[in-house]
Amino acid sequence: MAMETKTHLLEVLQTEILGRLPLKTISRFKSVCKKWKSTIESTYFRRLFFISEPKLLLFMYGRDELIVFHGHKTWDDLPKSPVSLIPHSFRRYYIGDCDYRDSSGGLVLITDGSDKASCYVGSPVTQQWVKIPPPPSSDPKGDSTVFGLVTRLDEDGVVLSFKVIRIASYQATNDYLSSDLGVLLYSSETGVWTSKVIHSPHQIGDMSNINLNGTFYFGCLSVPGILLAHDFYSESDQFRVVQLPDYPDHNKDYKRTLTTSGGFVMYARTLAKKEETVLKIWRLMNNDDYSWQLLWEVGFPITGNYAPMAMHPFDVATVYLWSQRDHHLVSCNLLKGNYTILGDAANDGHQDCFIDKSVCKQSVDELWRSSSDLDEDLNFQVCIWLFQFVIPRWMESVPRPPQAEMIDTTSLLSYAAATHGRMMKDIEEEEYFWNEVEHGRI
């Protein structure tokens, strides 16, 4: 009995020690013995690890990275910025044939610029990528465009499956009052493309969006103050209409944004007053009527034009504001009612925070332009603009669809370089041909 107790205590101690190591070190320890492998792959161990795991978080505007928070203890061989985990060739503003498109659950969706029918889903951390096959014969002309990625997660945040979304058509209906969105969906569970037409009671009008738990939320320019939502894991063919909690309050002094935190869609609003900035935050409840719950109404002793940018994806008490006057980022702790002005590590030693201030300034000024030139209805502006990329919380393999081709990042980059080389050669040959024609030699 005493020996069994001692063995059990040693196992508990061993598990606690393993849970405090960096994730890649833990992954290597899986090969030590079957018992360690079984322990590390258990649900109990995964949850133990998540308790103290620092998060790696990247905020992007379009394809530009703005703010990076780096939890350096989680991954022992990551660079300071997780941006570099998405290879430069995958990002639109670099010359190359692979473009970054979307992310969900730690997985990234990239498109192939030289082959409009192809795209890839993978993990920049595990370096695994799934080559998504071309769309079906229902898209014979290849007119559909890669739009987004949704994932289904378990209760610990591990990706169980994913879906790739291609937009095939968009059509205004009922004298331009409503619309139909035709999409093609590829499921990692079946490895098959399916088609679907989703009906909306309004014109979408704005493809700015966020996605969470398989659902995309679109802004609706034609009717300010509402969102259009659709769960791509559901059988429904209808968009849900979600009315924002303060609609129709058209106060042009409000700065509003939609973001996510703690597994919920969050709606944040700031109002500048003489001696403080008032911040209100609502949470969209996961129920049938899409009701909103007011979580916070807090005044901070900061003055000026502060715009809400995003919330921490796991901590609903942390929100980030940008000062349009002083051009700095503020992290507000809603629970304690205090705030911290964040700066770049290169300037003031914040080793876990990196900010591209010039991009932030340009982006915020562009989005929250003066309301004096806008119609009254358009004073109700809700910016859905700051994309969150969170490093996977666990080193799980990318879900593999039936008969799918799996490749690593090195192979994918080699392929991108080769196709880019072929494209450049074709361009040069075409230019040479027309030059010869122009000079009468052909």
TrEMBL record:
Domain of life per record: Eukaryota
Protein name per UniProt: F-box domain-containing protein
InterPro entries attached to this UniProt entry: At3g26010-like (IPR055290), Beta-prop_At3g26010-like (IPR056592), F-box-like_dom_sf (IPR036047), F-box_dom (IPR001810)
Residue span(s) of domain F-box: 9-49
